[in-house]
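Sample entry (399 residues):
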Amino acid sequence: MNVPKPSPEFKIASKVIGPSSPAYFIADVAANHDGDLSRAIDLIYLAAEAGADAAKFQHFQASKIVSAKGFDDLGAKTSHQANWKSSVYEVYENASIPTDWTETLAAECAKAGIDFFTSPYDFDMVDLVDPFVPAYKIGSGDVTWLDMVQYIAAKNKPYILATGASSMEEVRMSVAAGLSVNPNLALLQCNTNYTGSLENLSFVNLNVLKSYRDAFPQMILGLSDHTPGHATVLGAIALEAKIIEKHFTDNTGREGPDHGFSMDPRTWREMVDRSRELEHALGDGVKRIEDNEKETVVVQRRAIRAARDLPAGHVLTASDLFPLRPCPADGLAPYEIDKILGKSLKSALCEGQHVRLGDLNGWLSSPKNCVRHSRLKRRKNNWGNCIAFEVLWRSPRCG
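Predicted structure, serialized as tokens:
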């Protein structure tokens, strides 16, 4: 199958999401509004204060997302639903957002300075929220509903696909369906166990992000996570995740389907702060002597030095020399000793004094030598070793 390539970068509202951008954090309020609009608004502002880039809700009608008969036929509730006191259908009915909240929630997000997000779970809800959202989130449960993936993609906005409880074949199928319509797709690794147990860390499988990178080059990747702590988020960012989604509430002890595995304002703020520190620490991958190491280069590296007092005219042997710290700008690194062995000194050196190329007879005495050392300067300068600085310092004397 010839699958169109995804966009390597796109914008959600005013924020660029791409290889060089910081991670975009989505606070998933989900059902934590507890059916109270004022509470939903409070959570928006708390999320903004805690460092979220977006507050996300879920738009669905219970009758269009779950079958009451289907869950009744399953018998006893399982997984995270086992602790629900009401039937699955009733929980979804109570968790659904009244459609007349939508404009208010979007406006409050704008006032708080964050983006308004939602996951719509049927076609009517997609159409209803479209005027208010800068992007879409497709939940893991709809990864095999290709008609929905393409319907959302056809809105021509960025869309984010979570991939919990799915196989690689299913992910490829869903990605292909979406990209055939809209290239602005992001793919999130996810484990859809909502119990909040530490044991779930064994199943998060962050290395799937590597598999996604191999399978979908250029794709913007991320993590939708439901585990406690920050290990998964920090690991995902280290693996180049650019979108992070976690559930958000003000009190994880409240009763409700999503509170227990959510983060609160304190833990969310800590997560964002640690993530920003990590992003700074990751750097650009270019190995070089950093600005804050330039003094360390001098004090910590060794320069070739006289092992004893040496008179003018002395011909240097290995036993005359020993590498010791520091290595000043005109010093010679230990690996350069072959350059000076057999050369005679222009002037005397005292014990411990570093050897410079200019201390040697026949060095830098002709334009030919100057040209040769000019080449050496260009080659070594990329490595940032002592000789690079030495030649740069001496080159004005050439000619």
